[in-house]
Specification:
Number of strands: 7
Order of helices and strands: HHEHHEEEHHEHHEHE
CATH topology: NADH Oxidase
Largest sheet: 7 strands, antiparallel
Strand content: 15-25%
Oligomer: single chain
Radius of gyration: 31 Å
Distance between the termini: 117 Å
CATH class: Alpha Beta
Strand order of the largest sheet: 1-4-3-2-5-7-6
Helix content: 25-40%
CATH superfamily: NADH Oxidase
Structural class: alpha+beta
Length: 240
């Protein structure tokens, strides 16, 4: 009788084990996701006012009055003036994407940066000009005029101007088609763009001076330039 009871008890245990399912192991709780800097740092873009296409100052008057101006008042530029300057330098003047300055093969190797320090309604910083859409994209926060002046052998107009416009070049855009001669074409183009900027500054009653003496590596670091961009020209602009 005792043996039968033991067999019956064993049978009940086996049956219970067969009918019940084991509890699933709890899933590990994943750590909170940490967004990568690239994902979390959204670019800041600013729409510029529409540029004007006429004025009371003739081209001839701008040519007559254009001078290199190295002394500036400590007064801000307006965003409308900044808009006009950048459009004159590299803005679109054709629905197909052609620009105000000629470019060999319409390849447009130049990039344009605004080092803003004293502009109404615009936080100090380094901005890339985007001709398509006529916008600014912030690439560095804070006033970098003094750092840029240090890279330019301490030239005071760079630090005292309300803004500095810096032209850089991606040579491969042009040399990819024209070979080594494309380097010459890039340098021609930055001269066209720089003169456009200086004439527009004159028409607006502003002062500007082209600056070519600087340490390339220091300028590139100050502006956080991509490795394939080379700085060519700094043009301070301010109220005279």
């Amino acid at each position: 009788m005792r043996i039968v009871c033991l067999l019956f008890a064993a049978l009940m245990v086996v049956t219970s084990m067969a009918c019940s399912k084991p509890e699933p192991a709890p899933s590990p709780i994943p750590p909170p996701a940490t967004p990568s800097p690239a994902a979390s740092a959204q670019p800041v873009t600013i729409d510029l006012p529409e540029p004007k296409h006429d004025s009371a100052v003739s081209l001839e008057q701008s040519l007559l009055q254009r001078r290199s101006v190295r002394e500036y008042k400590d007064e801000p530029l307006t965003l409308q003036e900044v808009s006009q300057l950048l459009w004159a330098a590299q803005g679109f003047n054709d629905p197909g994407g052609l620009r105000t300055a000629p470019s060999a093969g319409a390849l447009y190797p130049l990039e344009t940066y605004l080092v803003a320090g004293n502009v109404q309604g615009l936080a100090p910083g380094v901005y890339r000009y985007l001709p398509r859409g006529h916008k600014l994209e912030r690439v560095v926060e804070g006033d970098k005029r003094h750092a840029l002046a240090g890279a330019a052998l301490g030239q005071s107009p760079v630090s005292k101007a309300a803004v500095d416009v810096v032209f850089t070049a991606v040579y491969s855009r042009t040399t990819g088609r024209y070979g080594e001669r494309g380097v010459r074409y890039v340098h021609m183009e930055v001269g066209h763009a720089g003169q456009n900027l200086c004439l527009q500054a004159t028409a607006l009653g502003l002062g500007a001076v082209p600056v070519g003496a600087f340490f390339d590596e220091m300028v590139a670091k100050t502006l956080n330039l991509p490795q394939n961009e080379q700085p060519l020209y700094i043009i301070p602009v301010g109220r005279k």
